[in-house]
Specification:
16 helices, 2 domains, globular, eight-stranded mixed sheet, single chain
Length: 415
């Protein structure tokens, strides 16, 4: 079977879509299928094309056997809604043209969203080739950004919502990452029996291999960020955007500075629109126990987590309670305890996994108590780490999830 994946984000970018379909693609290749990914030049999260990459009218790469077709976008940089909209719209236009003009002959087309514009392109390409369409929904836009207060209701938003309804109704199958999102997609017009929950996860074989490699590079990252030797390190790795609520970590760090000889240091790895703001807070408030690093190669994430004492996964309070950060699974895979500050389905999952202390979103005192509880009981901290690992082995290994997704694809083709 030839599987065409339309994704605005792909290797070497970090984040859920690049990891999800990079890993799935590898397993589908091993099962004997052909994979083509229609994407653009790497630019997330800053919206600037990465150093070493130069946009052209088109390019074809081979990434581990996956054929990747690159198509250009208007990558102006910055985080304003207008510039993001241009980025998404120009990818939709160029991807549709590139996909329609090429003799790709897929057996099925997957569109992975957000942004929702990808779903419009993938559905049209599926119609162009006369094959089934599968919509993969990791977050429900524009609803999610409305709930987060990042955009305001408008005619454009209402238009997107109507178009989303068309894609939901005309897709042969829909995959999503949590039960709450499945319920919401049915409310928005998806057909009963067509929505399948295939959660995010982690490729444990790759993760374990990478966790034992690159030790010298890992230590170099920590030294460059200013992490002192022997620090009790709590690490966050991901995007620095408003929905994550990373100011809470700095608030906790400020409180801990008042304690004599407190061993805990916080490492924030990544990039995003709040990076400058967070850096200014660290400097202005003298937060010597907070260290900010830029993005690192994906292969260094696992060894940095393994080198840490604990990880932190955080969301600020939000109206939709069905968001589960994809990084939670990688954090659990490290065999280190996880400090979760979130509500809803993410908290329910962490409680089921027993992976570490859970506090409400935005609860400074709750996150502080969680850190203190782990420091006071090293045996319990180790137990949390092992329980989290056992949970992802049983439920979130990408090897098993890729097979579940493949069954959805095969069923759609057969029907």
């Amino acid at each position: 079977m030839h599987i065409l994946v339309v994704s605005q984000f792909f290797h070497p970018e970090m984040g859920a879509p690049a990891a999800r379909f990079g890993d799935f693609g590898r397993y589908w290749l091993e099962a004997g299928h052909r994979i083509t990914v229609l994407s653009t030049w790497p630019n997330a999260p800053r919206g600037l094309v990465y150093e070493g990459h130069q946009q052209r009218p088109w390019a074809v790469e081979d990434i581990g056997g996956i054929r990747v077709i690159r198509t250009p976008v208007l990558a102006l940089g910055g985080y304003s809604p207008g510039r993001k909209a241009l980025l998404y719209a120009t990818f939709a236009a160029s991807a549709l043209m590139q996909g329609a003009l090429r003799n790709l002959r897929p057996d099925i087309v997957i569109g992975t969203t957000p942004p929702p514009t990808v779903g419009y392109v993938s559905l049209l390409l599926a119609r162009r080739f006369g094959v089934p369409h599968v919509l993969d929904v990791r977050d429900i836009w524009p609803e999610a950004v409305l709930n987060a207060g990042r955009v305001q209701a408008s005619v454009a938003v209402a238009t997107l919502e109507r178009l989303n309804g068309v894609v939901l109704r005309r897709s042969a199958a829909i995959t999503t990452v949590s039960e709450g999102k499945r319920t919401r997609l049915l409310e928005l017009g998806a057909k009963q029996g067509h929505v399948h929950v295939i959660p995010n996860g982690v490729d444990l074989d790759r993760f374990d291999r990478e966790a034992t490699e690159s030790q010298a590079e890992t230590e170099a990252v920590l030294r460059k960020a200013g992490v002192p030797a022997g620090a009790t390190l709590v690490t966050y790795a991901g995007v620095f955007n408003p929905p994550q609520g990373l100011d809470l970590v700095l608030d906790v760090a400020q409180l801990r500075l008042r304690r004599p000889a407190d061993p805990v240091h916080f490492l924030l790895i990544g990039d995003g629109e709040l990076r400058t703001h967070l850096g200014r807070r660290v400097a202005a408030e003298g937060l010597t126990n907070v260290h900010i690093s830029g993005p690192v190669p994906r292969a260094l994430v696992a060894p940095i987590y393994r080198r840490s004492w604990a990880s932190v996964v955080i969301l600020r309070p939000r109206k939709d309670a069905h968001t589960v950060p994809s990084k939670l699974y990688e954090c659990m895979a490290t065999r280190r305890p996880v400090l979760l500050s979130a509500d809803g389905e993410a908290a329910d999952l962490a409680a089921a996994a027993r992976c570490g202390p859970i506090s409400r979103a935005g609860d400074i005192a709750g996150l502080q108590r969680g850190i203190d509880a782990l420091l006071a009981d090293p045996v319990a901290a180790r137990s949390h780490g092992l329980a989290g690992r056992a949970y992802v082995e049983a439920n979130n290994d990408r090897a098993g999830l890729s097979q579940l997704f493949l069954e959805v694809l095969c069923d759609a083709v057969a029907r």
